[in-house]
């Protein structure tokens, strides 16, 4: 929970300090096998749906957890529904969050329905039946893309983590083993960003992208991973 909380706070509130602190604390305190099997969830039955968290400011920025609603009102939670504009905005941030989770240590764990945009504020309203006739197919295809990356890059299951930069605009880190190495950079803003790619990644073997980002350039809420 601490890692997911810190990651959500980074993408939602630009909390660079907490993300940096939590990652360093985990790397320092957790055994390697535990780090490699962390449950990096999209949401769980205990919290609000991720799409809701990123879509609105109906959450307490300074609360114990990033997913605690500002209102303790079960009726409000039960009837809450995002507008299309809120959903579309939150979806962009959510995709970047998922892209980042894909390359971090641990197991990407998908709470049913998060892959098709099911909504729910609070730990009761998030347990709706799976909406077979109302799926976000674009989001579903995105999760398939993410799943194929993890299937392709088996070395991520045991690769070490090195944080290169966490700032208000982007998060840059690399995963590495003795034989493979990949650099991931993700944007937390809706602006175009230029960044410096370390020279050792100029000779690239494979590239994965989000929102048409390119080497040295991040599109709004974009991401790029360069394997060498």
How would you describe this protein?
This protein has helices at 2-13, 16-29, 32-36, 50-55, 74-79, 84-103, 122-125, 137-152; strands at 39-41, 107-109, 160-166, 170-176, 181-187, 193-194, 206-210, 217-218, 223-227. By secondary structure, the chain is an alpha+beta fold. Strand 4 (170-176) and strand 5 (181-187) form a beta hairpin. Helix 1 (2-13) runs antiparallel to helix 2 (16-29) and helix 6 runs parallel beside helix 8 (137-152). The longest helix is centred in the middle third of the chain and has 20 residues, at 84-103.
User: How would you write the strand order of the largest sheet?
Assistant: 3-4-5-9-7
Shape: globular
* Main sheet record: 5 strands, antiparallel
Helix tally equals 8
Helix content: 25-40%
Cα distance spanning the termini? 31 Å
Helix and strand content put the structural class at alpha+beta
- The poorly predicted ranges are none
Alpha-carbon Rg, integer: 17 Å
Provide the succession of SSEs.
HHHEHHHEHHEEEEEEE
Overall pLDDT, averaged? 95
DSSP strand count: 9
Strand content: 15-25%
List the helices and strands and how they pair.
Blueprint: H1 2-13, H2 16-29, H3 32-36, E1 39-41, H4 50-55, H5 74-79, H6 84-103, E2 107-109, H7 122-125, H8 137-152, E3 160-166, E4 170-176, E5 181-187, E6 193-194, E7 206-210, E8 217-218, E9 223-227
Parallel strand pairs: 1-2
Antiparallel strand pairs: 3-4, 4-5, 5-9, 6-8, 7-9
């Amino acid at each position: 929970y601490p890692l997911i909380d810190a990651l959500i706070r980074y993408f939602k509130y630009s909390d660079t300090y907490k993300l940096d602190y939590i990652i360093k604390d985990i790397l320092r305190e957790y055994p390697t096998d535990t780090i490699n099997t962390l449950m990096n969830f999209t949401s769980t039955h205990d919290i609000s749906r991720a799409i809701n968290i990123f879509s609105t400011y109906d959450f307490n920025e300074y609360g114990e957890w990033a997913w605690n609603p500002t209102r303790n009102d079960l009726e409000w939670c039960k009837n809450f529904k995002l507008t299309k504009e809120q959903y579309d905005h939150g979806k962009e941030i959510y995709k970047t969050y998922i892209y980042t989770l894909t390359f971090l240590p641990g197991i990407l764990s998908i709470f049913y329905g998060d892959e098709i945009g099911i909504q729910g504020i609070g730990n009761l309203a998030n347990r709706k039946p799976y909406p077979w006739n109302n799926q976000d197919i674009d989001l579903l295809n995105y999760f398939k893309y993410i799943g194929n990356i993890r299937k392709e890059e088996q070395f991520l299951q045991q690769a070490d983590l090195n944080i290169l930069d966490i700032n208000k605009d982007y998060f840059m880190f690399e995963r590495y083993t003795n034989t493979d190495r990949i650099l991931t950079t993700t944007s937390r803003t809706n602006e175009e960003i230029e960044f410096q790619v370390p020279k050792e990644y100029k000779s690239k073997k494979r590239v994965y992208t989000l929102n048409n980002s390119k080497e040295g350039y991040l599109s709004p809420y974009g991401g790029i991973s360069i394997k060498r």
